[in-house]
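Design a sequence for this backbone.
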């Protein structure tokens, strides 16, 4: 195993042709691990110094540890690119046939460069990731003091084969609530419609509309959007996801006025609910946010997706709509 350490942005171009093909050979293939996501995140935030580790065996790329170092309250700290707020899952990217070898090589490198990496703080690692299962012991064997803690939950719906099956999976009260809200909006005298943004729409205009709804829906979201880095990242990543076919930006309109919107990512076998926005005051009696969410779930079932992933956060509505907890972990070592 040979480790190459890239410490500037040339890493993304050097690994561009191999990054996503490696990801497709990894145990977990996720949109947040793609070359597109990682490169865009780094360009928007640049919070420290890059440290992308590429592991090769006989010249073939078998692992990437996309890291960066920064200063924190703990002193010099090494994190995964994307950590922490706008990226819901993170991990090392490793060929499933070389997991133990590559993780051992990464652990050896981290031990050798221990003084320069400082405190290792790996966030948002899925609980079922081989990195979560193997790396802590490898680091402990090399003298690191390691802690592994649950960081957050990501509620996920295992989608059934049809809408009726989905409704049957909900508890009686929530099943009644979903049906009641759908009947109410469908029986309204107001003109109600929903659509998914595609090539016929002006994407820039649709993004502006989404941002307005997002800011209006929650003071924390409004504050989030006031950060220049967040705005820069958001407005860069959405068109890129659309170009790759990984975006589902959709709106519910009432009397042709946008009332609610979701940004979802479509990747592999799942729909991932990345963010949302809705107008509280004008259409509250029609529950546009929940109605559009129900439309999204039904559409995901009709399109044959297996999972509807609410991503990080334990908001009550995710459970009312059928989400069941999965966990993301934090691995710390020093």
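Sequence:
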């Amino acid at each position: 195993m040979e480790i190459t350490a890239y410490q500037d942005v040339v890493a993304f171009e050097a690994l561009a042709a191999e990054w996503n093909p490696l990801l497709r050979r990894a145990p977990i293939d996720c949109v947040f691990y793609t070359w597109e996501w990682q490169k865009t995140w780094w360009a928007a935030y640049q919070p420290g110094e890059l440290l992308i580790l590429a592991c090769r065996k006989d010249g073939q790329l078998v692992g990437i540890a996309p890291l960066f170092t920064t200063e924190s309250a703990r002193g010099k700290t090494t994190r995964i690119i994307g950590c922490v707020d706008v990226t819901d899952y993170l991990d090392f990217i490793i060929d499933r046939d070389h997991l133990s070898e590559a993780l051992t090589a990464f652990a050896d490198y981290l031990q050798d460069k221990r003084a320069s990496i400082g405190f290792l703080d790996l966030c948002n690692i899925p609980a079922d990731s081989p990195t979560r299962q193997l790396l802590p012991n490898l680091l402990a064997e090399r003298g690191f003091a390691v802690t592994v803690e649950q960081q957050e939950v990501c509620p996920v719906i295992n989608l059934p084969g049809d809408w009726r099956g989905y409704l049957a999976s909900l508890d009686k009260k929530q099943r009644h609530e979903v049906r009641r809200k759908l009947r109410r909006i469908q029986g309204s005298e107001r003109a109600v419609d929903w659509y998914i943004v595609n090539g016929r729409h002006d994407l820039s205009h649709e993004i502006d509309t989404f941002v307005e709804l997002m800011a209006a829906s929650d003071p924390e979201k409004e504050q989030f959007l006031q950060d220049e880095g967040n705005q820069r990242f958001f407005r860069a990543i959405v068109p890129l996801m659309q170009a790759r076919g990984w975006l589902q930006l959709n709106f519910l309109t009432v009397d042709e006025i946008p009332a609610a919107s979701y940004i979802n990512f479509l990747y592999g076998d799942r729909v991932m609910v990345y963010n949302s926005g809705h107008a509280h005051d004008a259409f509250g009696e029609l529950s546009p946010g929940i109605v559009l969410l129900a439309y999204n779930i039904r559409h995901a079932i009709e399109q044959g997706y297996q999972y509807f992933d609410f991503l990080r956060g334990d908001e009550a509505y995710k459970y009312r709509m059928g989400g069941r907890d999965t966990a993301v972990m934090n691995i710390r070592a020093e």
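The chain has a mean pLDDT of 96.
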